[in-house]
Amino acid sequence: MRRLKVFTSLVRDSLDIITKGSKKYHLWMGFLTLIILIGMYCYSIQLEHGLSVTGMTDRVSWGLYISNFTFLVGVAAAAVMLVMPTYVLKDIDFKQAVLIGEGLAVAALIMCLAFVIADMGGPSVLWHMIPGFGVFNFPNSMLTWDVIVLNGYLFLNITIPFYILFRHYQGKEAKASVYVPGALLSVFWAVGIHLVTAFLYQGLQARPFWNNALLGPRFLASAFAAGPALIILVLAIIRTFTEFKIEDKTIKKIALVVTVAAQINIIMLVSELFKEFYAPTHHSESAYYLFFGLDGKTALLPWIWTAITLNVIATVILTFHKLRNNLKILYFACFILFIAIWIEKGFGLIVPGFIPGPYGKIAEYTPTAIEIGVTLGIWALGALIFTVLAKTAIGIETGKLKYKK
């Protein structure tokens, strides 16, 4: 009964703190709400007319929605790079940022699920995802494995931070015996969600572009580059606009993780390019379309070469210790690296897998305004969820939110 009373007080205090703030805070929340409403309007059009209002066809059946889903799985998995040093290795430098990282993981996972719903056409078919009711097809379908691991990782990233914040709200220390086992499990689970997503593509025999043994490891490398890069940018914003101070050494340690992951990602990219173009076969046509165009079709050329250029520039900047330790340069490098991997794991991975089609036909894909509107709405929803979670967590950690007996 007492815990219920404390929980009720926490909810009431959280609602109080997230509805108050500076003018910039209210403008930010108003802007996100506007984008969400635009996204909902676009989604209502999709519900009325179906997926025909998107740029997807029977030739290219995955587009902007699945591209963002794949990328955000990596962003969610990146929280493990803060969880493991903090909860397992007891590194106090990461302790300031771990709750922010886990909040980011929760927002990313909710966006992942929202993009899956959008790609399915509408929520009316979601009952198929419920075991025992729909056609779940477990364990044969890799998609069902993906649903299980994503929801499991979401559960871990909600319960562990909630327990810690719930204890801190009462002025008590969290018991390591309670949260450390969950933290250890989340480390392996984070790797699992990304490998299962990679296996989802690798298991499609008719799509040779994805039949690559490096796909899983490269998913992890790009995730541990883009995710912590985003965390660094978020921490920079938080320490600028809030009282929650993040020390430079915390950001620099995370930057080292980004650097190593970005370097490994580049090495794997070179390995893939060598495999595709040194001894090309007819299975290399998807890669030729992506990097050089095919039969005059060049829609993805500006995207992929922009991504590679930004990727290389960011990795070079991060590699040099002096440049990486300059925070302004570091923020720039993290920003362009994030954009580069978003392109690379989005259009650069999903669309070429469908081109050319089984009969050699090249049907290019371009997202419509409806798709872009829904996508922006889901990203705004994720940003709003993260803002609410971060504002509550910061309030508890700074002592503004305390349980009043």
UniProtKB/TrEMBL annotation:
It is a multi-pass membrane protein. It is found in: Cell membrane. The keyword Repressor does not apply. The chain crosses the membrane at residues 27-46, 66-85, 97-118, 147-166, 178-201, 221-242, 254-274, 300-320, 329-355, 375-396. Keywords: Cell membrane, Membrane, Transmembrane, Transmembrane helix. Signal peptide: none annotated. It holds the Pfam family NrfD. The keyword Glycosyltransferase does not apply. One of its GO terms (cellular component) is plasma membrane. InterPro entries: DsrP-like (IPR054823), NrfD-like (IPR005614). Belongs to the NrfD family. PANTHER family: POLYSULPHIDE REDUCTASE NRFD, PTHR43044. This is Molybdopterin-containing oxidoreductase family membrane subunit. It comes from Tenacibaculum caenipelagi.
